[in-house]
Amino acid sequence: MLLPEQIECELVAFCDTSSRGYASCVYVISRNDRGQAKVRLVTTKSKSSPRQTIKYPEVLINGAPKEPRKWEGVFDAVDRFRSCPQMLFSFVIGTEDCLVLDVYSPEYAKPTDRLPVMVFIHGGAYYYGTKAHYDPEYLVTKNVIVVVINYRLNVLGFLCVNGISNLGLRDQVAALMWVKNNIASFGGDPDNVTLCGQSAGASAVTMHMITQFSKGLFHKVIAMSGSLFTPWAFNLEPLGPALKDARKIAPANTEQDVYKIFMNSRVDDLIRATQDTSVNPKYFKYSPCIDSNTSDPFFHDTPYNIFKRGEFNKVPMMIGHAEVEGILFYGLTDNEFVGKLNEEFYERLPSIFSWCSENNKRNISAILRSHYFGERRITKDFVTGLVQYYSDWIIHGTHNEFLKLLTTLSDKPVYNYIFSYQGYRNFAKLISGVRMKETTHSDDVFYVFKPAGLPLLLSRADRTFIDRLTLMITNFMKFGDPTPSPSAQLPIRWPRSNASIALRLAETLQVVSSSCGSEEFRDVLCTYGRAGHVPCESAALCDPA
Fold first, then answer.
1. pLDDT on residue 16
2. Residues 6+ apart with CB under 8 A from 342
3. Distances in Å between the alpha carbon of 453 and those of 134, 139, 203?
4. How confident is the model over 212-234, as pLDDT tens digits?
5. φ and ψ at 332, to 5 degrees?
6. Are 28 and 180 within 8 A, CB to CB?
7. Where are the alpha helices (DSSP H) in 287-348?
8. What is the pLDDT of residues 319-374, one digit of tens each?
């Protein structure tokens, strides 16, 4: 399909007062009878899903928020691989001018069609990733519209000091606002938006359920391996890691020092200083923070407190995980880190325990080490213990707790799944190098999206599974039910779920019992986790550090 080279439109701005200390104005496209601005469109090679790339930010250095203003010019949208600053091997890639989104629509979509819309938030530990990795052709061919977005990462998106907070999440809100105001022009229905995310993106979509900023901007949720209850989802002590990283650039002792250093440093220097190449429980040091003490908080209370009061957007939800999430993270862990677990286990606890005293950290370490590793010396050869440890703190340890509370407080349908399919697209399992039969973290994502830039093979069975999985997802987008009526392709009804049942997604669909995470990990979390930050009523026995 050939699209018109230009669209007549006007740019409207939403401004955030803090982006590395200056105003960040997100410019969004809306049609105007006068047609004051022009945006050039590009398409993919696929006739089924034309891609229209929209640029949506401008940064005004040292400026206050500005009134919406017109922009005259042509945005070059040919470079679909524009990403926010991040590390790739030993190189810093990306640009601060990265807030762009791609709109994929069926070939003959018209403004009057009002098709269901998905907004996808990529994963990557809040450190890595870009919209360009995810080609939604499999979904779009089923007559829906998909929007994939960029958002600021690492210290640029999740520094929490001096009143700056959760800029990456605010970028996501700006994209959702753009969709609400403009997606009808592309044939989409602004009143039927499914917010979907994977890994860190999954934790983010559940965060949007509890913030006032996202209210009314989406109507269904899909969370693939993550939620706001996962131990890494929030950074409880954001100043500590920021101080440590700031000192790699210049002397720093206070929050104000950190602010000045980060505001005045080159992007390359910031990314290199904040890079942590080891995969460990402290890996997510720049992630969303509780900012209730700021002038414009994204979260007015702790996530658990907000959620347990029922103050969240109650919408239909699909949520699930792989069989053994920790396999991938075991494969990415280096021998040096594993070796240090023997003498310094307490220093490498999940950040959810960072607020505890040294004595309590040692108690936690003794319990966890005994449970996962016994009395043996920990080495990279201890596959089972490390995989289980990673699985619990990455996803499994809190998945059922989120489901229990969600299904208790919301009358909307919830569909829980366990991803079990094995095929050529299990890329995460492949790169982990671990010879275990179970699926792992991120194995599911490339059965939903085509992997841009990765020439992964497809078998006939893979194609059949992709067609079935994306049919369930688009059914959910359209009807709020992934299996609305039995058919040859979907011979089973996916029942409304709770924490005890799930649909196993494999070559054969099967309803199974769902048990997730070890009791020992949950007991430690509830005994030593900070009250209001972990899904437990009896938390906070820790003495603060």
1. 38
2. 377, 378
3. 9, 18, 26
4. 999 999 999 999 999 999 888 88
5. -90, -5
6. no
7. 303-308, 326-332, 335-344
8. 999 988 888 888 777 777 787 778 778 777 777 777 778 888 888 888 888 888 88
Q: How far apart (Å, rounded) are the C-alpha atoms in residues 181 and 177?
A: 6
> Which are the contacts of 460, defined by CB distance < 8 A and separation ≥ 6?
none
Q: Which amino acid is at 417?
A: Y
For residue 13, give every residue at least 6 positions away whose Cβ sits within 8 Å of its Cβ, in sequence order, or none: 25, 26, 27, 28, 58, 66, 67, 68, 69
How many angstroms separate the CA atoms of 461 and 507, rounded? 8
519: Cβ–Cβ under 8 A, 6 or more apart, which residues? none
Q: How many CA atoms lie within 13 A of 323 on its CB side?
A: 13
> 86: helix, coil or strand?
strand
Q: Residue 165 is inside which H or E element, if any? A: none
The alpha carbon of residue 461 and the mean position of all alpha carbons in its chain are separated, in whole angstroms, by 29
Strands 37-40, 6-19: pairing kind: antiparallel
Structure tokens at 347: 């220093």
Beta bridge partners of 87: 92
Q: Give residue 476's pLDDT.
A: 99
**Residue 114 · residue 188 · CB < 8 Å:** yes
Give the Cα separation of 99 and 504 in Å (integer): 36
Beta strands in 441-528 (DSSP E): 450-451, 501-505, 510-513
Rounded distance, CA 324 to CA 391, Å?
6
For the question of whether the overall pTM of this predicted structure is more than 0.70, the answer is yes
322-333 pLDDT, tens per residue? 988 888 888 777
Decide if domain 45-52+80-315 falls under CATH 3.40.50.1820: yes
Q: Please check whether residue 440 is in contact with residue 431, taking contact to mean a CB–CB distance below 8 angstroms.
A: no
Query: What does the alpha-carbon distance between residue 280 and residue 335 come to, in Å, rounded to a whole number?
Result: 12
Q: Report how far residue 49's alpha carbon sits from residue 137's, in angstroms, rounded to the nearest whole number.
A: 6
CA triple 329-221-297, angle to 5 deg: 85
DSSP state of 446: G
351 Cβ contact partners less than 8 Å away, ≥ 6 residues apart: 231, 232, 235, 236, 237, 281, 282, 284, 285
With CA atoms as reference, report the closest residue to 419 among 509, 323, 499, 492.
323
DSSP assignment of 206-227: HHHTT-GGGTTS-SEEEEES--
- For 491-505, letters b (16+ CB in 10 Å) and e give eeebeebbbeebbbb
Q: At what angle do helices 358-373 and 519-528 cross, to 10 degrees?
A: 180
Q: What is the identity of the amino acid at 497?
A: S
Determine contact, residues 283/351, Cβ cutoff 8 Å.
Answer: no
* Tokens coding 420: 């079990």
User: What's the rounded mean pLDDT across residues 469-496?
Assistant: 96
Taking a C-beta distance cutoff of 8 angstroms, is the pair 330, 433 a contact?
A: no
Distance CA 56, CA 52 (A): 13
